[in-house]
């Protein structure tokens, strides 16, 4: 071995070492170039359009008189209002800096101390528990959407540094405060302040400023949908303001006592279900400018109050929600639209029952009877209300009536007005439920989108699902000579505009006859009794419907000028506690109709006489031409129909029912003999009067004190004149203070009055009333 010489290094070791050295240098050079490039990139000028103000609202919705209902969103779905920094309330600036970036004025886009603290907390917790985004970094994400990955965080950091290179702190803060999402699709503090507080961000209290600042981190905890969480977040911001020295503890304490939302929500976002549906059904590219809707704000507000009142009154019986819609018959304008009692309710407030399909119960029957009238039936036609079993594709079907009774032979007028089920099913069997479905489709019931065989005969009783709006618009067709036209939600800019082409649902005369039946208070007595909420001071055709197990309760009313449809129930489908049309939807319909009459003149209903109808004397029992022995009444009949066949049910030997009813009559006598009531007696069948005993006046009652409803034109302030009992003779004459009344309604006149009724058989009754 030679002294002083180095040992030789293995060739393989030398060959392996040199590439690692070169690779390390290459990586270092690469990162140096990347950093240099990133540094140089931060000095590049900002894109020219990057800082352009956010879009202004694309659409303003007003009611028919110009009152603003809602300021809606821009094309990106947002609400935005730009406000320069010098006009923003100083408390608002302080609140955002204290809550979001306490060292905003000290760093250059990135708060490295906050980043180190966040890293420490996240590593200790083994999850993300803290962030370190500065206001500048948040603005970078708002201007240039960046993913929340590690590369995205690097990009956000570089953008923040770049923004700080070219903008002052004031410019950054202005851009941030005018772009930050603050819940309910608001962009910026001005838009949010106007939505939540009804005032500009130029003049906010400390509590309001703290609440808005709290939404920057949790915009879903806005004060409209989550007021409790919004209050908690506001308290945190107030604490940060005290800690940072922007406010003293006493001032912050007073701010904490402010209401979470001091501004009345109804005034900032009106007719919420209506405007939401209008926007949802309008393509984004069609939005722009100002739209004048059909809503009448005063009526809308009043109807909303009545819907809430109804739910409050019936909540202990399982009625948790209610809805209502009002249409102008001439134009189809939607005057009021209330989808739920409280749009802002956390669980179900946004459910809109005006457009949510549910089973309508008996409310579809008028369209079945209208179809029957067009095919030769009259309101005097007798239909069976007997225990009948029908063979269907799914097995035997035996319908029952609401009162669980059978009423024997019933005229179509009484069957429809009293909403008996079995005659309706019988009509559907005779005319074909397929034809009924086609009629309903022509009446606008698009929700009935299944095959006719799926519904079967049950379609006559409302086993399909329809919406409240469809129901109202279909009934409006009855007041429009049987022609259906789609309801209108916007008013034309250049005047009333065309009401559009109609779809023929039934003939004008059949539509008028259906309304005449539905407006007949006497014909509905067997089904609803004497006291109902359907007696109004103007002609009003009414139909109710209740789905199985009292799940849905409906009522629809048609005056000459408007149509009202209401629903009462529970969105969850839970049954109510025996809430029927009389106790549930009926009273709501009554009150909404009175409110609407203040806005739209009710006018009279179209009479069958307009289309050639004439009143003909018929037998009250058989519906045939009345003879000397028949209990008579008058009924509308058209010239091509006629009721010339004399009644052969009444003979010198008494009442002789046809064979199909004779067995039923015998069974009634047998069952009643053992105390089981399954129907009415043959004697009552003959009289066809729900009240036994002598004739008496049932409306008005003796001693009644009457008054003209507020806002109702005196020309429409009238009361029905009704009698019951006696031998059923028709031709009752009415006298008020000795003067004959030429109709069955008397227009109210202030003072004390004596009302006298004289029947065709000479029976008399009188009452004393006072009109105040």
Compose a concise summary of this entry.
The protein is α+β, with helices and mostly antiparallel strands and 772 residues long. The protein is built from 24 helices and 29 strands. A 5-stranded antiparallel β-sheet has the order 7-6-16-15-14, sandwiched between helices.
List keywords for this structure.
alpha+beta; 772 residues; 29 strands; 35% helix; five-stranded antiparallel β-sheet; 24 helices
Which range best describes the helical content: under 10%, 10-25%, 25-40%, 40-55%, 55-70% or over 70%?
Answer: 25-40%
Q: What is the arithmetic mean of pLDDT? A: 81
Report the radius of gyration as a whole number of Å: 37 Å
Flag low-confidence runs: 11-17, 669-692
- Tally of alpha and pi helices: 24
Oligomer kind: single chain
Strand order of the largest sheet: 7-6-16-15-14
> How big a fraction of the residues is strand?
15-25%
Q: Give the overall silhouette.
A: elongated
Number of strands: 29
Q: Structural class, please?
A: alpha+beta
The main pleated sheet reads as: 5 strands, antiparallel
Distance between the termini: 138 Å
Describe the SSE topology.
Layout: H1 11-42, E1 59-62, E2 68-71, E3 79-80, H2 90-100, H3 112-125, H4 135-143, H5 150-166, H6 169-177, E4 186-187, H7 189-197, H8 206-215, H9 227-243, H10 249-256, H11 265-268, H12 272-280, E5 289-292, H13 297-314, E6 321-328, E7 334-338, H14 365-374, E8 382-385, E9 390-392, E10 395-397, E11 408-411, H15 412-417, H16 421-431, H17 433-442, H18 452-455, H19 468-478, E12 483-484, E13 503-504, H20 508-518, H21 525-528, E14 541-546, E15 552-558, E16 562-569, H22 581-597, E17 614-619, E18 632-637, E19 650-651, E20 654-655, H23 659-673, H24 682-687, E21 696-699, E22 705-706, E23 718-720, E24 722-724, E25 733-736, E26 739-741, E27 745-747, E28 751-758, E29 764-771
Parallel strand pairs: 1-5, 3-4, 22-29
Antiparallel strand pairs: 1-2, 6-7, 6-16, 8-11, 9-10, 12-13, 14-15, 15-16, 17-18, 19-20, 21-24, 23-27, 25-26, 25-28, 28-29
